[in-house]
Amino acid sequence: MTADTTWATPARILIVDDEPLNIQVLAEALGDDYDVRFTTRADEVTTLACRLPLDLILLDLVMPGRHGLEVLAELRAEAVCRDVPVIIVTAMNELDNEEAGLNAGAVDYITKPISPAIVRARVRTHVELKRQRDQLAQLAEIDGLTGIANRRRFDRELQLRWHAAQRHGDTLCLMLGDVDHFKQYNDHFGHGPGDQCLKHVAAALAQGAARTDDLVARYGGEEFAVISRAEDSAAQAQRMLSAIAELQLPHPLSSAGPYVSLSLGVLDVRPRPELSIDAALAAVDTLLYQAKRQGRRQAMLRHYDHDAITPLRAGG
After folding, report:
1. Where are the beta strands (DSSP E) in the chain?
2. Per residue in 200-255, pLDDT tens?
3. Residue 77 backbone dihedrals phi, psi, to 5 degrees
4. Is there a catalytic annotation at residue 44?
5. Considering 74, 94, 98, 222, which one is annotated as catalytic?
6. How far is 264 from 185, CA to CA, in rounded Å?
7. Do 121 and 204 fall within a single domain?
8. How many domains does the chain have?
9. Tell me, what's the pLDDT at 7?
10. For the whole model, what pTM was predicted?
């Protein structure tokens, strides 16, 4: 049984050491059970950890130019990679460094010269613990009714994507949607069918998402939220509206039409230091309110830096 047979993909491990020979020895000890990456530069570690989903880092503490403790501190300061476990690799005469590394947040240590069996055992243990924690965290961020992301996941993901977009100068698209007259739907059909309606809406919105990195979440009650890259946001919003319209779920008490429909606020926004996430959410909520006020079953789209609002309906 290999170290990773219980998981769908091999765990990805980053080896950090300024000596290529040490990297080679560690990589050979790990064998073919892992997706092993490496760097000889301490100043690259945080960038790589933020860009590559990692399950574990093997970090040499004593390197020229930058001490491993500095790297540890930087990793722990980055929200994207602060939960990646780090095993420090030290020489037998560096016990003070081992203690300092553990106090700084490392989960374990390995001494040089390494024992391949010890390396494999400790790596396997911490990879399995990391993936189990990830699974529990994922379950805690799934909406129990609809099976899509919940509000907790949305808030966390928005924080991460907001700061990443701010660093890279990218633009995000935020959407808030509300099932039109959902209270009347519940009053007419009952809460059981109402729950089924929300499940159908959630599945349709998830299917209408254009890209694999789009996040569709249940924001609360009959409200849904979407985070995506701002690439043709109008077409994205129209797909969402069309996906709900195509369900053709009867809604006899809705003044917006005979079937269940959605109102959407859609905001393209380029994050920057002087603009808060709360301000962006308030802006998209205002657009959602305007869509409702002007008849529902439509979206209102604008860019945060412009006043022009574009009304959108299903199918264009």
Report:
1. 12-16, 35-39, 56-60, 86-91, 108-112, 172-179, 215-220, 223-229, 262-269, 299-303, 310-312
2. 999 999 988 867 789 999 999 999 999 998 988 999 999 999 999 999 999 999 99
3. -85, -15
4. no
5. 222
6. 18
7. no
8. 2
9. 57
10. 0.69
